[in-house]
Write a structure and sequence with these properties.
This protein is α/β, with parallel strands linked by helices. The chain is built from three helices and eight strands, in the order βββαββαβαββ. Strand 4 (55-56) and strand 5 form a beta hairpin.
Amino acid sequence: MRVVVQRVTEASVTVDGEITGQIGPGLLVLAGFTPTDSAAELDWMARKLVQLRIFADADDKMNLSVQDVGGELLVVSQFTLLADARKGTRPSYVQAAPPPIAIPLYEEFVRQLQALLGRPVATGRFGADMKVRLLNDGPVTIVLDRNKA
């Protein structure tokens, strides 16, 4: 599992001209799943995201989590995060989970985040052609990988 986390002042996802998810200050999470991801990876990543201290405290140090500041989450599935472009000029996506595996992982990941935050989590639409808009705050962008090794 791989995610790209961006601290944002606002973010939204639009599909076919309709906003499917929108947040104010918080985290935009782009999430990619592998065929071997399990509940353990989802749990680790969900807890990591909710507790990741990348928001400023009173001393302007990144010492607070999205949970601490009451921030929102927007989670967007993105299989291209698992691209392998080491050979040639056309990326390979064989490391990305196919939809029958990725959809349940994505839905469970969102459920876990909602449970940890105690409030709804905004989402995109799995497999759709999505337009993602964001205003990166900082900018702060972090890549998190969950390797089983």
